[in-house]
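Many introductory courses stop at the sequence. We go one step further.
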Amino acid sequence: MADVPVTVALLVLSQNYRGRLIPQVNRRCMALRTLRIVPGAGQNVAFGAQKGGAIAENYSEGADATNFGSDGEVPVLIHWGLYRAPFSVTEHARRVASTTATPEGVENLVANKMMASNQELADKINKELYTGLGTGTLMAGFDVAIGDDNNSYGGIDRSDAANAFWRPKVIDPGSLTSPTFALVRRDLGQIKDQGGESPDLAYVSTSVYNTLAGLFDDNRSFTQDITTGRGPIKLESSAKAIDIDGCMFVPDKDCPANAIYYVNTNYVEIEYLPPDPRVLAELASMGVQMLADDGYGPIPLGIVTEKLGRTGARDKYESLATLQLKVMRPNTCGVRLNVAVAA
């Protein structure tokens, strides 16, 4: 009788996947990781700005005071930005996933999809930190808050000369200009002269970052340890920053091209509206996690995931975030436009 060797083709084998699902989407949120994030309250983001008005003068001995003045107070009101990430899961998909052994994490399909949705939500918010228009329920990003000195921000019209105290430093040479150490130092000096303090952080695109890094010699060391208004921060292994005169330049994939956003992190933060404590307690009892995560660790944005109505054999969910960028002293921040990059 002929020998019949056993080959893989003759076997009925299960298909196993090693380890966890490997995300292939770049959702790194550098701005969210470096800015202070604080809880807020109420119908909007509100604080008071104090502008000049006090009087100091020379006087003659015995003369009565006739000139009186005091600093003025101006309300700043910024509406909340509303963002969400909806997803749905069919009943069939949940049953199939719950009975699978690999890859890891798929057996709880709702939790897996919620995590991905929260990552995407954080990524969306990180983009809005730069380009959010500030209209309707959109965040007022850096372009609105510190990228324009002739617009309205927080209800204060900066085109009015009386509100010059509320203006950022906008530097636009009008055409693409290659960055130099002298140019950056001039920018930092102009912002310090205007607001009294220098920016400690600058967000740039990868191409601008590489151009600035090219100004240093080959022995220049780059750091992963930075300190902002959020406190000491250690960037993850593949992210680095360079220091120019005490201002840390950090690349962010979402930063608009050909620009440098100078930020004083002592006066810039992200304010979020915390979820209803009753909702938090209910979700905690279910073991649901609500932290956003860009793939490099959690980001506290007050996200809550809600279950919506059921359509057929499908459950619907949405992750919600209510937040806003808050620049409390625009005159200590600024932007340089038309930055040329190395080929």
